Amino acid sequence: QVQLVESGGGLVQAGGSLRLSCEASGTISSRLLGMGWYRQAPGNERELVAVRTSSGRTSYADSVKGRFTISRDNAKNTVSLQMNGLKPEDTAVYYCYANVDYDVGYLEHWGQGTLVTVSS
What we know:
Layout: E1 3-7, E2 10-13, E3 18-25, E4 32-40, E5 47-52, E6 58-60, E7 68-73, E8 78-83, E9 92-101, E10 106-110, E11 114-119
Parallel strand pairs: 2-11
Antiparallel strand pairs: 1-3, 3-8, 4-5, 4-9, 5-6, 7-8, 9-10, 9-11
């Protein structure tokens, strides 16, 4: 069973930085297709923040472009999100995401979430 374990959330002042990390266990790196981060603020739907494919292609939400950077270590099955220039509107629970290839199909997996709070 694939498990995603996140770390790195917390409280930071506006303009500050945080780094989120996520490690996937229970599978091999070649089966981890897209890995990335979503977030959900109170009263809002879960939204994509950033995703990186196993081949290195990246995609970012417009709201975080230029401030957040996603990186991935395929050998360690980890994905990280460096968040700079944080704004109060970045406050949310951030979820690690992985799309896993099971040969017969694909399945999305989610971490338990880590809270990021940005104070003004």
